[in-house]
């Protein structure tokens, strides 16, 4: 019984770890993301998320992730750190 319990616990931990990695690797679409979804990206806080949404509302859909550099406060360094977590669809 103890062996089965240990095995079930190990499988559960591995499953949770695998799901966590899978969720973290899904890029956020900057053309449709909510503020909360944008904030799930490392490097995007509440203010930056709102700036992205405001820019998108004013200028329309983004044609590339690199276009985020047009937003005040998002420089080349910030963009480089977050670009692999973002996409445009």
Description:
With 89 residues, the protein is mainly α. It has a domain at 27-87: AF1531-like domain (DNA polymerase, domain 1), CATH 1.10.150. The protein is 55% helix and 4% strand. The protein has four helices and two strands; from the N terminus they run αβαααβ. The protein has helices at residues 2-24, 35-39, 46-59, 76-82; strands at 28-29, 86-87. The chain has a two-stranded parallel ribbon. The radius of gyration is 18 Å and the shape is elongated. The relative contact order is 0.16.
- In what range is the share of β-strand residues? under 5%
Radius of gyration: 18 Å
Helix/strand order, N-terminal first = HEHHHE
**Low-confidence parts:** none
- Which architecture of the domain at 27-87 would the CATH scheme give at its second level? Orthogonal Bundle
CATH topology of the domain at 27-87: DNA polymerase, domain 1
- Sketch the major β-sheet: 2 strands, parallel
Q: How many extended strands?
A: 2
Secondary-structure-based class equals: mainly alpha
Largest sheet strand order: 1-2
| Helical amount | 55-70%
Q: Tell the overall outline.
A: elongated
Separate helix tally:
4
CATH superfamily annotation of the domain at 27-87: AF1531-like domain
The whole-number mean of residue pLDDT values reads: 86
Q: Which CATH C-level class of the domain at 27-87 is it?
A: Mainly Alpha
N-C termini distance: 50 Å
Write the layout of secondary structure elements.
Layout: H1 2-24, E1 28-29, H2 35-39, H3 46-59, H4 76-82, E2 86-87
Parallel strand pairs: 1-2
Which structural traits does this protein have?
DNA polymerase, domain 1, 55% helix, 2 strands, mainly alpha, 4 helices, 89 residues
């Amino acid at each position: 019984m103890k062996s089965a319990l240990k095995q079930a616990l190990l499988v559960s931990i591995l499953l949770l770890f695998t799901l966590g990695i899978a969720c973290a690797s899904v890029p956020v679409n900057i053309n449709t993301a909510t503020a909360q979804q944008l904030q799930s990206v490392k490097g995007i806080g509440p203010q930056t998320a709102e700036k992205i949404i405001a820019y998108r509302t004013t200028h329309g859909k983004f044609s590339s992730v690199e276009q985020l550099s047009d937003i005040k406060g998002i420089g080349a360094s910030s963009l480089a750190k977050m670009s692999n977590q973002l996409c445009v669809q």
